[in-house]
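C-alpha cells incoming
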C-alpha cells in the first residue's frame, strides 16, 4: 500500500512541499487548509494531480478542509500559520501561530494517532515544543524542520563563493532557527577537504552571517511573505528519510533531555532519521567556542518558550 503524507497549511510552503513530494513519488498527498480556502486547496491539489500524467508519477493528490481526510497518515507536515513580512522576526508570529498550531495538532492527532509530525511553522523551536505537548506523542515522533534548510542555505552560499558543486559540500548548522543559529565551520568540508583550502576566514565569516539572516534576506526580497521553495525541499528530504527508512544523518529540531546540557526544550541537533522518526540524537564533540554559540542560541530559544508559556500555552 502506498504511504500517506498530509500537509496542513496549503499556502506557499505547503503547496511547494506537495509538489516536491509528488515529484519523488514519496506518498499520496492530502493538502489540508481552512474551510474558506477549500476551493483553493482543492484547486492546487487537482492542478498538481493533472501534472502527474505528464511527469509519469503514480501518486494521488487531494485537497480538503476536513481533517478526517488526513486520517491514518504516516507523516503529517504542519505549515499552518502566518508567515513573516519585512521587518518582522520569527518571534513576532508567536501569538497567532501558537493558537493555530495547537488547534491543528489536536485535529491531526485525533485522526492519525500513529503518525510522525514534522513542524515547519515559525517560531519553529517553540511551535514544535507546543506540538509535542499538545500531541502527547513520544519525542521520536515530533520533529521540527529548520536545520536542513539552514544547512542548505549555508551549503548554497559556500558553493556560490567557492565555485564548486553544491553536491560536494558537507556541512551542519545546529541551534535554534533564529539569527544566532550555529554553522559548524570546523566540520565543514568540500569534497572531503577542509573549507579553509577554498575560502579565506573573512569569506567564511561573511557566509556564516549571511546564513544566519538567510530567511530575512528572502523576506526582504519577496516583500510580502517568506521563503518557500527551500523550506519545502528541506521538509521533503526529512519526509523521504522517514518514509524510505533511510537512516539519514540530518540536523533536526529534536526534544532534548540532557543532550548538549539542554533539557525540556527543542533545538537543532544532528540526528539519525528513519522509519521510527528521530532514531538517535547524535552528541558531537564541540569546542569551547562552539559550545558558547550553542548556549547563546539555546538562551534565545528559551526566551521564546518563556513567552509561549506566559501566553498560557
Ligand atoms: N488550519 C489549516 N490551515 C491553516 C490554519 C488552520 N487552522 N490557519 C492557517 N492556515 C493556513 C493558511 O490558510 C495558509 O494557507 O496556513 C497557510 C499558510 O500559508 P502561507 O500564508 O502561504 O505561509 P507560508 O509561506 O506557507 O508559511 C507557513 O511556515 O516557514 C514557515 O514562517 C513560515 O510560519 C510560516 C509557515
Amino acid at each position: 500500500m502506498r504511504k500517506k503524507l498530509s500537509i496542513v497549511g496549503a499556502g506557499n510552503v505547503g503547496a511547494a512541499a506537495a509538489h516536491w513530494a509528488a515529484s519523488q513519488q514519496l506518498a499520496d498527498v492530502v493538502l489540508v487548509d481552512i474551510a474558506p480556502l477549500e476551493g483553493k486547496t482543492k484547486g492546487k491539489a487537482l492542478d498538481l494531480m493533472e501534472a502527474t500524467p505528464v511527469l509519469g508519477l503514480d501518486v494521488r493528490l487531494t485537497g480538503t478542509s476536513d481533517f478526517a481526510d488526513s486520517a491514518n497518515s504516516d507523516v503529517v507536515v504542519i505549515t499552518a500559520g502566518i508567515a513573516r513580512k519585512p521587518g518582522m522576526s520569527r518571534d513576532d508570529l508567536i501569538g497567532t501561530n501558537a493558537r493555530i498550531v495547537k488547534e491543528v495538532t489536536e485535529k491531526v492527532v485525533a485522526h492519525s494517532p500513529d503518525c510522525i509530525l514534522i513542524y515547519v511553522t515559525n517560531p519553529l523551536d517553540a511551535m514544535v515544543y507546543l506540538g509535542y505537548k499538545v500531541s502527547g506523542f513520544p519525542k521520536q515522533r515530533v520533529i521540527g524542520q529548520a536545520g536542513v534548510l539552514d544547512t542548505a542555505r549555508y551549503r548554497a552560499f559556500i558553493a556560490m563563493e567557492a565555485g564548486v558543486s553544491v553536491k560536494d559540500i558537507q556541512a551542519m548548522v545546529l541551534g535554534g532557527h533564529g539569527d544566532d543559529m550555529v554553522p559548524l565551520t570546523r566540520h565543514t568540508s568540500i569534497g572531503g577537504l577542509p573549507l579553509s583550502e577554498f575560502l579565506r576566514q573573512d569569506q567564511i565569516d561573511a557566509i556564516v552571517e549571511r546564513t544566519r539572516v538567510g530567511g530575512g534576506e528572502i523576506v526582504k526580497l519577496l516583500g510580502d511573505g517568506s521563503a518557500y521553495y527551500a523550506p519545502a525541499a528541506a521538509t521533503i528530504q526529512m519526509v523521504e528519510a522517514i518514509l524510505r527508512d533511510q537512516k539519514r544523518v540530518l540536523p533536526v529540531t529534536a526534544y532534548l533531555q540532557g543532550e548538549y546540557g539542554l533539557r525540556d526544550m527543542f533545538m537543532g541537533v544532528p540526528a539519525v532519521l528513519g522509519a521510527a522518526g528521530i532514531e538517535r540524537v547524535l552528541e558531537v564533540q564541540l569546542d569551547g567556542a562552539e559550545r558558547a554559540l550553542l548556549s547563546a542560541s539555546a538562551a534565545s530559544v528559551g526566551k521564546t518558550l518563556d513567552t509561549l508559556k506566559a501566553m498560557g500555552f
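note: The first strand starts at residue 4 and ends at 8.
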